[in-house]
Amino acid sequence: MANRPKRLGICLLAGFTLAVLLQCKTQSASAREIDTRARSERFIPQKREVHKRAAAANALVSSEAAPIESKSAPQSTRKPGSGSAKGPYYVDFRARTAASWGHAFVWFGKTSERAVEVAGLTPAGDNAAYVLGHLMWVPSETTASYGDLDPQYLTASYRVYLNEPDAKRVFAYIKKLQASSPVWNAETTNCTAFIGDIAEFMGLKVPHRWQRPEEYVNNLKAMNSGRQIIRLSER
């Protein structure tokens, strides 16, 4: 019987200790939960901000690309002599970025019209055709390729203007060159050689073809002192 108070004291002490431990554990769990929630709340605005910037960038690209994409619409079916204003014609020698060295091509058309035609020499098909084109000749394409109408990929441009008779001759030559260029090769019949043939037909001085497209177009402009008006009759 004498041991009962002692046992009761031990039980009370054990119960008090257990209660303290349970309270500490509960507080620790609550603190971790609060900390985790706080960290997640700090990160949420950051993620939202990233998404906002991405959405804004996509909207900007869309707004910039929309007018350019409209240029790829079919050419006007208006007949010559239908009363349309006669404005200057142009050929725009251009270069853009690409997965490798880049690409050179031309825009040509009438300044008073939004429609634009594109001519360039690229390997037809997928990446395998491009790789094979460094070893042999592969089938080609001579119309617009991916990125030719997008201003964000443009790296160089040299635009020259022509009157109507000269434009007809140059445009006819471009279409003839497109029809007579069935193959592509990285070393010989490449994109810079293609636009160089057009420039040479127009009476421009041309650099050698083994240059990056951006350098080629910039050198083409420099060699001709930035000349903007071309007269084939002066040749």
Characterise this structure:
The strands form two sheets. The protein has a four-stranded antiparallel beta sheet with strand order 3-2-1-6, with helices on one face. The N and C termini lie far apart (130 Å). It has five helices and seven strands; from the N terminus they run H-E-E-E-E-H-E-E-H-E-H-H. It is globular. The protein is an alpha+beta fold and 235 residues long.
Gyration radius, rounded: 35 Å
Largest beta-sheet characterization: 4 strands, antiparallel
Strand line-up in the sheet with most strands: 3-2-1-6
In helices, the fraction of residues equals 40-55%
The DSSP helix count reads 5
What value does the average pLDDT take? 73
Low-confidence stretches: 1-86
In one word, what is the shape? globular
- Taken in chain order, the helices and strands follow as HEEEEHEEHEHH
* Strand portion: 15-25%
Question: Secondary-structure map with pairings?
Answer:
Elements: H1 4-70, E1 89-96, E2 103-110, E3 117-120, E4 122-123, H2 127-132, E5 138-141, E6 154-162, H3 164-179, E7 183-184, H4 191-201, H5 213-223
Antiparallel strand pairs: 1-2, 1-6, 2-3, 4-5, 5-7
Helix pairs in contact: 3-4
